[in-house]
Amino acid sequence: MLLPVINQSRHALPEYQTAHAAGLDVRANLTEPVTLKPLQRALVPTGLFVEIPVGYEMQVRPRSGLAYKHGIGIVNSPGTIDADYRGEIKVLLVNLSDQDFVVQDGERIAQLVVARHETVQWQPVSTLSETSRGASGYGSTGQQ
């Protein structure tokens, strides 16, 4: 898929880090480092603007290395960039650790995954089909 992109950052376009990776690593585009204190969140710019085809979304997902090593996640994970959005991609990072974390310019802060999606139309009904799970909720699967 060819994806139109405007790169106003000082960095290369997001890249796949391995041959079969699903996500493209995206970098922070900062004029100065951003310090995230414990439980603090910040909207980090990337300098990227994209044109996503209708029927697709771009998901913004955490990087596992930042999560494991530093407790850095994304507040609205995964974030969704819709096909009609034309603004800058920004990443809403959160520090879930007990130590300050400094985001540096050019640091890989998230992954971008492009995914197809469906558009639904509601069909109001009075009953739903039966399943073995039924209405059992959170934590109910695997229970005897």
UniProtKB/TrEMBL annotation:
**Biological process per Gene Ontology, one example term:** dUTP catabolic process
* Biased composition range(s): Polar residues: 125-134
Q: Cross-referenced InterPro entries, in alphabetical order?
A: dUTPase, dUTPase-like, dUTPase-like_sf, dUTPase_trimeric
Q: What cofactor requirement does the entry state?
A: Mg(2+)
Question: Where on this chain does substrate bind?
Answer: 63-65, 76, 80-82
One Pfam family linked to the record: dUTPase
Q: In which pathway does it act?
A: Pyrimidine metabolism; dUMP biosynthesis; dUMP from dCTP (dUTP route): step 2/2
Reactions it catalyzes: dUTP + H2O = dUMP + diphosphate + H(+)
Q: Give the stretches traversing the membrane.
A: none
Molecular function (GO) terms listed?
A: dUTP diphosphatase activity; magnesium ion binding
Keywords attached to this Swiss-Prot or TrEMBL record, sorted alphabetically, are: Hydrolase, Magnesium, Metal-binding, Nucleotide metabolism
Q: What is its EC number?
A: 3.6.1.23
* Region ranges (Disordered): 125-144
The residues covered by the dUTPase-like domain are: 12-142
The top EC class is: hydrolase
Q: Which NCBIfam families match?
A: dut (TIGR00576), PRK00601.1 (NF001862)
Q: State the family it belongs to.
A: Belongs to the dUTPase family.
**Which PANTHER family does its entry note?**
DEOXYURIDINE 5'-TRIPHOSPHATE NUCLEOTIDOHYDROLASE
Q: What is this protein's function? A: This enzyme is involved in nucleotide metabolism: it produces dUMP, the immediate precursor of thymidine nucleotides and it decreases the intracellular concentration of dUTP so that uracil cannot be incorporated into DNA.
HAMAP family noted in UniProt = dUTPase_bact
Name of this protein: Deoxyuridine 5'-triphosphate nucleotidohydrolase
Q: Which gene encodes it?
A: dut
